[in-house]
Amino acid sequence: MKKSAIVVGAGIVGLAAARVLSINGYAVTVIEKTQRAVGASIRNFGMIWPIGQPDGELYQLAKNSSQIWKDICASTGMWFNQSGSLHVAYSNEEWIVLNELFAQFEKEGRPIRLLTPHQISAKYPLVKQHNLLGGLYSNDEMIVDPRIAVARVSDYLATVAGVQFLWNHTVQEVGVGYVKSGNKIIEADKIFICSGQEIETLFPETFSALPIVKCKLQMMRLHSPNNLPVGTSVCGGLSLLHYSSFKNAPSLKLLHKKVFSEMPEYIKYGIHVMISQHELGEITLGDSHEYGFTFDPFDDHYINKLIINYLHGFMQASDWVINATWNGVYPKMTDGSSWYFNQVLQDIYVLNGLGGAGMTLSFGVAEKLIVPIC
Residue 55 in contact with residue 241, Cβ under 8 Å? Predict the structure, then answer.
């Protein structure tokens, strides 16, 4: 008889778990409380972002995830763009850090280049030239549209891998060998809890003992009347303070000191500013990072204004119009871990806490963690 597995949660982490389980011979049922995935997995840039991961295992997991994304896109006909990424520098401190990162990444064998202002102008004319010192380009990064991609992955798993989806089913109870949703008892050999920010719902005592916190981010979607292509995902200098792969740059402390002195509100709200562009030309802009467990449900106009003001410092965006604003919430480990994975009861596992790297790491992490226990 075929082995069976239940995955609770149809966000990208749950879908990645379902994929691995199906490949390894399990009959998989994914249970999701809403009619479709509407959480953090669709409220992001759609960036698969290896440049943000440090050298070694995490970078390789990101590269593995990127290839899996491409395979799924090829199978489904889903749009994606191997856009790469461009980090731009407008201050001496930013430019020094980019040069240090170039030297570091070149030793690691990453596909990166330092670009002059003239080279950037020729290839990416929407990047502002005034005071531009140069940029660091990486070819690793790709973009999907998360509003479409997560739903397409669900469809792919259902049609190609035979994964069953139970939408609009809230799981109230999990025990050894079963989950309960309403009056329905669903049995399985293994159960995986991939519940995202819903950490108070199932096994709350497990999460309360963890070094974990929730992060609220604010983002916007914009439209350019001329619908001009940006050509790549572009990041301002603030992003150099955000990713763990940048932390070994010797001059990063000087940049942080400069930003803290000149733009303390950006530090306060954890703002770094970057853009991605999707198939129809829409531009996703963000983001901020507030940490806690209970958040104001409303978007803070002041935070969005800070993001917009910074955007105008490195992009020619004066005619861009805001179409939508939103916020998302995800759990993040506070001890430097890249995820939480543990068996909480016999054959019941919790996978969570990937932070803002869910789109980048989930497929690779699921393979790493779940294959050995299949």
Answer: no
Structure tokens belonging to residue 260: 């803290």
Q: Shortest CA distance to 145 belongs to which of 52, 86, 78, 84?
A: 78
User: Each residue of 313-325: pLDDT tens digit?
Assistant: 999 999 999 999 9
Cα three-residue angle 153-80-136, rounded to 5 degrees: 130
Q: Which pLDDT tens digit goes with each residue over 219-243?
A: 999 998 888 899 999 999 999 999 9
For residue 59, give the amino acid letter.
Answer: Y
**Angle at 65 (CA atoms; ends 347, 355), nearest 5 degrees:** 70
Place of tokens 């963890």: 210
Domains of the chain by start residue, with CATH: 3-47+147-210+337-373 (3.50.50.60), 85-139+212-333 (3.30.9.10)
Residues 64-115: tens digit of each pLDDT: 999 999 999 999 999 999 999 999 999 999 999 999 999 999 999 999 999 9
